[in-house]
């Protein structure tokens, strides 16, 4: 058991003891006022020295805190992720499983959770997906996964991407089968006699890999069919005349509104708009309503996730992700790994096609 204290960490990092104390308490209000450069130096020093806090003999003995964390954003990103129906549905499943097993849940937004295994002593951690490519914190995330894997720390990433691997080893996660979802959608478009479609994703320099993957899969399943899917009608990312839309949390209705207005101005609206998620689809529906374009008579709309879409008017046709089930399963797998550290998991669940009034 290491006896390193915060004085040693401060010396290693070249900062004051008070600064170390602020940074090693991720829930402290003073923590967010520390520069990222200083925070990185302190956390690196703490990891190098294998620092453990001295706030209770029970924790020092390595006993359970009965706490599981749910990280809804990357470190340093204080987003509106709480407002996302995607996060909300996951939270319903995670919270249910955590409570049923006698644990408590701690939600993390913007705090640096790379060292929660050592410093804050969360028993396990659930994270929303993020990309290891084109990520300004790529190296930090790789170091985090390395430490988690080396120490058999229980963690799960919700909807990990195919590219989210560490030295060829998939990151532990619970995801949805995008290939099955796009096959179901392609079959529906063909069955409904749709003649052409556009794909609306995130109008940002770094759109989610899930959106890119779904778009590519849909193009593959529609190849050779009667449905036209031209590359020029893929609005995912920005540049080449496509404006960048500021982020509002992780998902933005404004993406859908902006894309529809652009297509309308260019007189290029297709028969159907396939959207990367339901928030984008709701934005598209809003823009179509403002333009007095009838749905689905003139333009059909399809979403992804099934975020309370049966309450919209008209009801949104979408691919349903079993998010509550994914949250519960993530916790169950974490509890299994606590008992059996050698165990590993990476699970894909099947999506469901939800046919409603927008197609």
Can you describe this structure?
This protein is an alpha/beta fold and 359 residues long. The protein contains twelve helices and 14 strands. The chain has helices at 6-13, 17-23, 36-48, 57-60, 85-100, 116-120, 138-150, 178-191, 209-222, 253-265, 278-290, 323-339; strands at residues 67-71, 104-108, 124-128, 155-158, 165-166, 169-170, 173-176, 197-200, 234-235, 272-275, 300-305, 317-320, 346-349, 352-354. The chain has a six-stranded parallel beta sheet with strand order 2-1-3-4-7-13, covered by helices on one side. Strands 9-8-10-11-12-14 form a six-stranded mixed beta sheet, with helices on both faces. α1 (6-13) packs across α2 (17-23) and α8 crosses α9 (209-222). The longest helix is centred in the C-terminal third of the chain and has 17 residues, at 323-339. It starts with 5 loop residues before the first helix and ends in a 5-residue tail after the last strand.
């Amino acid at each position: 058991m290491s006896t390193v204290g915060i004085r040693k960490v401060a010396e290693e990092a070249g900062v004051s003891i008070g600064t170390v104390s602020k940074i090693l308490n991720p829930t402290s209000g003073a923590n967010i006022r520390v520069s990222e450069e200083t925070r990185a130096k302190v956390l690196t020093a703490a990891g190098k020295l294998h620092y453990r806090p001295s706030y209770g003999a029970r924790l020092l003995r390595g006993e359970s805190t009965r706490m599981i964390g749910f990280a809804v954003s990357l470190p340093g990103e204080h987003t509106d992720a709480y407002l996302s129906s995607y996060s909300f549905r996951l939270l319903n499943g995670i919270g249910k499983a955590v409570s049923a097993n006698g644990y408590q849940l701690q939600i993390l937004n913007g705090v640096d959770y790379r060292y929660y295994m050592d410093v804050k002593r969360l028993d396990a951690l659930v994270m929303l997906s993020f990309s290891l490519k084109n990520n300004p914190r790529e190296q930090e995330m790789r170091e985090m996964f390395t430490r988690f894997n080396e120490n058999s720390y229980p963690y799960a990433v919700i909807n990990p991407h195919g590219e989210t691997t560490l030295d060829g080893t998939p990151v532990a996660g619970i995801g949805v089968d995008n290939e099955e979802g796009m096959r179901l959608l392609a079959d529906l478009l063909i069955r409904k006699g749709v003649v052409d479609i556009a794909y609306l994703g995130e109008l940002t320099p770094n759109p989610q890999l899930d959106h890119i993957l779904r778009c590519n899969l849909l193009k593959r399943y529609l190849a050779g069919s009667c449905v036209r899917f031209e590359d020029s009608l893929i609005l995912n990312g920005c540049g080449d005349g496509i404006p960048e839309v500021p982020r509002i949390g992780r998902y933005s209705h404004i993406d859908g509104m902006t894309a529809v207005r652009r297509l309308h101005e260019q007189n290029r609206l297709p028969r159907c708009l396939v959207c990367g998620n339901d928030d984008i689809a709701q934005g598209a529906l809003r823009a179509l309503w403002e333009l007095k374009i009838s749905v689905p008579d003139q333009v059909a709309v399809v979403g992804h996730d099934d975020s309370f879409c049966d309450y919209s008017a008209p009801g949104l046709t979408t691919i349903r992700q079993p998010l509550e089930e994914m949250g519960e399963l993530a916790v169950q797998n974490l509890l299994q790994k606590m008992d059996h550290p050698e165990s590993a998991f990476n699970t894909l669940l099947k999506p469901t096609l939800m046919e409603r009034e927008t197609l």
